[in-house]
Amino acid sequence: MIKRLSIALATLAVAASAQAADQFIFGFSGPNAGNYITLNGGTNLAFVDEGWYFEDGHHDTSNTNYIVGNCSSCSYKGEYRNWFAVDLTGFSGPVTSASIRLYSYSVTLTSGNYYLNDYTGSVSSLIAGTGGLSAFADLGSGVSYGYQFYQSATDSYQFFTIALNSGAVDSLNAAIANHESQWALGGSFAAGDVPVPPPVPEPATYAFMLLGLGVVGAIARRRG
After folding, report:
1. Which residues of 88-175 form beta strands (DSSP E)?
2. At what angle are helices 203-223 and 166-177 packed, to 10 degrees?
3. Can you give the pLDDT at residue 203?
4. Nearest Cα to 123, choosing from 163, 76, 172?
5. Is 74 exposed, middle or buried (0-12, 13-18, 19+ CB in 10 A)?
6. Are 173 and 94 in contact (CB under 8 A)?
7. Distance CA 152, CA 104 (A)
8. Check whether domain 21-197 has CATH 1.10.760, yes or no
9. How many helices (H) and strands (E) are present in the chain, helices listed first?
10. What integer pLDDT is reported at residue 114 of this predicted model?
11. For residue 102, what are the β-bridge partners?
12. Which of 18, 86, 30, 24 is nearest to 54 (CA)?
């Protein structure tokens, strides 16, 4: 009897642990007319597509849910990263400021930081679902564009506007200058109790770092 009770308790503990692994935002999401990227404070660009890539590189092109984070109760159990793409053909630039507005839908079980960053791969492949593992990796790494802290107790089912930094502005201007028709950005989620700014330096920071290294090298050569 005691042995059976122990097994039952262990089973419940495992189930509770699996449920606790649900740590995501934008759960049960889909196309929303209030979602868009705003350029220069007044031009709103609606998304031409949106979605998620699973940790194994899978993307369902018919599913416009943009869940991000870890989900143990989903059909695919594991980490999701999301993305959004806009059409640039009607905008000539230059871009001086940018932000993204997203409806939060379900923020589940925990607080954490939603990080936005560059996407360097093919946007058409991203949309077509052929990006694979490289797309999943790309969506959660690279140049930081901004972030937003979410809390499950207060932040479900409402709009948030996330300011995009100079890294995003530079990328948009480069895409416009190169006559690219579409531009995309990626997102990842890290659970945590406090807002944590992205650790990845912005392009301007990289430039200063390289300049500093150049100065140090020049001084070293003179001393040598």
Report:
1. 98-103, 112-118, 144-150, 159-164
2. 100
3. 53
4. 172
5. middle
6. yes
7. 10
8. no
9. 5, 11
10. 98
11. 160
12. 24
Which mean pLDDT values do the consecutive 10-residue runs of the chain (224 residues) have?
A: 45 42 93 97 96 97 96 94 96 94 93 97 97 98 97 96 97 96 97 85 49 46 46
pLDDT of residue 110: 83
Residue whose C-alpha is closest to residue 85's, from 114, 111, 122: 122
pTM reported for the whole predicted model: 0.81
Tally of CA atoms within 13 A in the half-sphere of 173 that contains its CB: 12
pLDDT value for 167? 96
Which of 143, 142, 81, 79 is CA-nearest to residue 114? 81
d(CA 164, CA 173): 13
Cα separation, 135 vs 55, whole angstroms: 10
Terminal CA-CA length for the chain: 81
d(CA 110, CA 20) in angstroms, rounded, equals 9
Distance, in Å, from the CA atom of 176 to the CA atom of 18, rounded to the nearest integer, reads 45
At residue 82, φ and ψ (nearest 5 deg) are: -115, 175
DSSP state of 130: -
Contact 113, 190 (CB under 8 A): yes
- Counting Cα atoms < 13 Å in the Cβ hemisphere of 49 gives 17
φ, ψ of residue 78 in degrees (nearest 5)? 155, -150
